[in-house]
Amino acid sequence: MTYAGLAAIFLALSAVLLAVAVVRRRPGAAWWAATGLTAAALFVLTVVFDSLMIAADLFRYGEGAEPAFLLWKAPVEDLAWPLAAVLALPALWLLLSKEEDR
């Protein structure tokens, strides 16, 4: 299984979980804004720190495994993990919290 294939599985599961949570709990605009800002912050942090680690030569790609699309030095596939987290964790919070806790 490829790295992108594994990421696609996690993204699909996270998206289904988010869809279920949104349909059941109907979050408001503030929830969507907070989730969007969290996603943006995680994307920026991922690109910056992945790029710094690659620039510091803490890891490298094998021959023929060079990523097709880069954001600075970070492969775009690395954004799948923070995206999966930003989809799944707020969805779980919606599903598991009581109405007055939200």
From TrEMBL:
Its main location: membrane. Pathway: Carotenoid biosynthesis. One of its GO terms (molecular function) is lycopene beta cyclase activity. It is a multi-pass membrane protein. GO terms for cellular component: membrane. Keywords: Carotenoid biosynthesis, Isomerase, Membrane, Transmembrane, Transmembrane helix. It is found in: Membrane. InterPro entries: Lycopene_cyclase_dom. Coiled coil: none annotated. One of its GO terms (biological process) is carotenoid biosynthetic process. This is Lycopene cyclase domain-containing protein.
